[in-house]
Write the C-alpha cells for this entry.
Amino acid sequence: MAIEVRIPTILRTYTGGAKTVEGAGDTLAALLTDLDSRHSGLRGRLVTEQGGLHRFVNIYVNDEDVRFLGSLDAKLNDGDNVTILPAVAGGAFGFAAAAALLGRSTTR
Amino acid sequence: MSRYESLLEAAGETPLVGLPRLSPAVPEGAPPVRLWAKLEDRNPTGSIKDRAALFMVREAERAGRLRPGDTILEPTSGNTGISLAMVAKLRGYRLVCVMPENVSTERTQLLRMYGAEIIFSPAAGGSNQAVATAKQIAADHPDWVMLFQYGNPDNARAHYETTGPELLRDLPTITHFVAGLGTTGTLMGTGRYLREKVPGIEIIAAEPRYGEVVYGLRNIDEGYVPELYDASVLTRRFSVGTRDAVLRTRQLVEVEGIFAGFSSGAILHAALAVAHQAVKDGIRADVAFVVADGGWKYLSTGAYGGTLAEAEDALEGQLWA
C-alpha cells in the first residue's frame, strides 16, 4: 500500500533531502513506524515520548488535519496523500512568535 | 437602521448572501445543500478585522491599558493593521505596525494612508529575524501598547458577540460554519457562540498552505500556535494550497460575482468540500462561510489572470491570506 508523504524542509535531513517519500500503513501510527524503519529518527520528531503528536507539528491526510480524524489512529488508504508541516500561525509568518514575546514584555 | 454616529459604529452587520450557482446540485427529492457567503469586505476598512480591532481597542480603553495619545504596536501582515490604523486615527492613537517585506504593496500603501507607521522585518530571515526585530523594538519602546491579536480574548469576543449572533439570526437553519484560521479569533468566537446555540453544528477551519519559504523554521520547536486556539471548538480543519485557493477565488467572482481575496478562496474550497460531502450523505446543509476581504489589495500580484500555474508562481513566497 503506497502513501505519498510530503516532508517539510526542516525534516529533510532524515530523508536524504527528499521532498516526498513513500510509505505504507493502515493508520498514521503504522505509517510513521514504517517510515522510521527507512528514515531513522523521523518518527521521534513528530511523536512525543508520551505517544501524542508533537504540539508544533501538523499532519494532514488529503489536506485534512489528522487531529480531527483520530490523530495517530487516523485511517489511511492506498493513494492517500500525507503532508507534514510545522505549525505556524496562518497568515502570521514568524510574527506570531514575535507577538508572543512582545505581548509579554510590553503589556502593562 | 443604516444611519451611524461615526464610522466605528458602522462595523459589522454584514450581508449574508446565497450562492445558488456555486451550491452543489442535489438529486431529485434529496434535501437541499446551500452555500451562504458572509460578506465581511463590507466593513469600514474592507475586512473582517474591523470587528476585532474595534473590540480590542475599546476593551483596552475600558481596562485603562490605553490612554489618549498612546502608541499602539502590532505585528501584522496586513488587514489587522489597516483596521487598527483606522480605529487608532478616530480614537486618537498612534499606530506602529511591524510586518514582513513580502506583503502586497497595496497593504503598505493603505496602512500609510490611514496614518500608520511601518517597520519592516526581512522576509528572508524567517521567524528568527522577526523575533529579533520585535524584541529590539520592545526593548527600545517599553511604553508602547501591544494589543496582541493572537492572544487577546477580545479578538474572539468580537465574533462571539457580533459575527455569531448575526449568522444565527440571518440563517437559523445553519448546519456548517467555515472560516479562515489565522489568529483563530473568528473561528473561536463565532464557533463557541454557534455551538452553544445550534446542537450538532460543524465548525470548519481553512488554513492557508503557503510555499516552503514561509515554513523556514530552523527546528520544530520554533513553531507557534496562537494562544487563542482551542481545538475543541473545531470539528474539522483543512489545509488549502495556493492553487486551490486561487481556483476558488476566481470561481467566486466568475460564477457568483463576488470579488474576494485569496483567503476567501481557501475558505470556499473547504466549504465546497463539506457541501459535497453533505450531498453524498443525503443530508440537508446550510453552509455559511466567511468572505474575509475583497480582492482589491491583491490585484498587483497578477494572480487573478493567466493560468493557475502562473498564479501559483506569482504568489510563491507571498502571504496571500
Observations:
- Chain B has a mean pLDDT of 90.
- Chain B touches chain A through 68 residues (CB under 8 Å).
- The CA atoms of residues 125 and 216 of chain B lie 9 Å apart.
- The longest strand of chain B covers residues 202-209.
